[in-house]
Amino acid sequence: MMIEDIFKALGDPTRLRIARLLGAMELAVGELAQVLGQSQPRVSRHVGILCDAGLAERRREGSWVFLRQSESRAPVIEAVQRLLALAETEEPAFAALCEADRRKLAAIRDARAAAAETYFARHAGEWDELRALHSADADVETRLAEALADSPLGALLDIGTGTGRMAELFAPHADRIVALDKNLEMLRVARAKLQHLPTAQIELVQGDFADLPFADASFDTVVLHQVLHFAADPLPALAEAGRVTRGGGRIAIVDFASHDHEELRTRHQHVRLGFSDQQMADLLKAAGFAEAAPIALDGGPLVVKIWTARRNAAHASLKTPALETAR
């Protein structure tokens, strides 16, 4: 992209306002239209110009399209944001527009948070019922953080982020975090929880844990927190986790030890009733990981286990025979 294309893209008051807003957070195109007080088709045209110039990038999440600053042009983006901040100090009219936009943006953030609270209230009884069966969440989080404290987290992938709690927990210690979930409603809950984090540090992605939308060897750390028991076949999910983990990188799986609480299948849609250490060891080996000693937290009828493992240095695609042996 030529530098003149960048300046042409910024040569419009609406696009300047969009660029300033994207410096604060990722926004859906409909949310941008709401802040700017313009029609969605018109805003989409402005968005297209910014994307063509490499200043922004789109990301589809179900029927919604989100816009964020382009990560591939980070130095240019930083320079543009510095210029826009300076413009606010020098141009009172532009500063007033940006301040009004920020007030509307705050209202959107409040609406997101309110929607998240409504979701929590609707499901609080179900979650409280499940939490009563196992160790306190705070104890699990402490032990998980300790298990991963011996090496830098680097780029971290939180598979099945749910409410975004794991991403929030590790954000102060990771270079960047990608939080992935298949469920759109959960992603919107996570977005409300994580919207205080810098947009360059956190990315929310819709996707399936058995078909991750990332290149090989993209992450240093992969976390699956209370996710794997939803998998009819956990092996493809772990194979995908292995594929996207760099050689020497780590995986942490938090889930239940084998149990006989059949009611969880119907009340909470658990497909698998936990895992034995041998099952997990076989799965991790097939996915290309060398397992460390598991950690058990026995705080109720359900025992929570933390399995950690390190990706074998020779990063290779998994073959079907190896997968079949671990089934």
Summarize the structure.
Helices cover 47% and strands 20% of the residues. The protein is an alpha/beta fold and 327 residues long.
Overview of the molecule:
The chain has helices at residues 3-9, 13-22, 29-36, 40-52, 74-90, 92-131, 137-147, 165-170, 184-194, 234-244, 263-267, 277-286, 320-325; strands at residues 27-28, 56-61, 64-69, 155-159, 176-181, 202-206, 219-225, 245-256, 289-291, 295-298, 303-311. It has 327 residues and is an alpha/beta fold. It has 2 domains: 3-107, Arc Repressor Mutant, subunit A; 133-325, 3-Layer(aba) Sandwich (Rossmann fold). Helix 5 packs across helix 6 (92-131) and helix 6 (92-131) packs across helix 9 (184-194). It is elongated and about 65 Å long.
> At the fourth CATH level, what is the homologous superfamily of the largest domain?
Vaccinia Virus protein VP39
Low-confidence stretches: 317-327
- Total domain units: 2
Rg from C-alpha positions?
22 Å
What overall form do the CA principal axes indicate? elongated
Largest sheet: 8 strands, mixed
Please provide the count of β strands. Answer: 11
CATH architecture of the largest domain: 3-Layer(aba) Sandwich
What's the CATH class of the largest domain, please?
Alpha Beta
The secondary-structure class comes to: alpha/beta
Q: What string, H for helix and E for strand, traces the elements in order?
A: HHEHHEEHHHEHEHEEHEHHEEEH
Report the CATH topology name of the largest domain: Rossmann fold
Helix content: 40-55%
- Beta-strand content estimate: 15-25%
Give the count of helical stretches: 13
Distance between the termini: 49 Å
Average pLDDT for all residues:
86
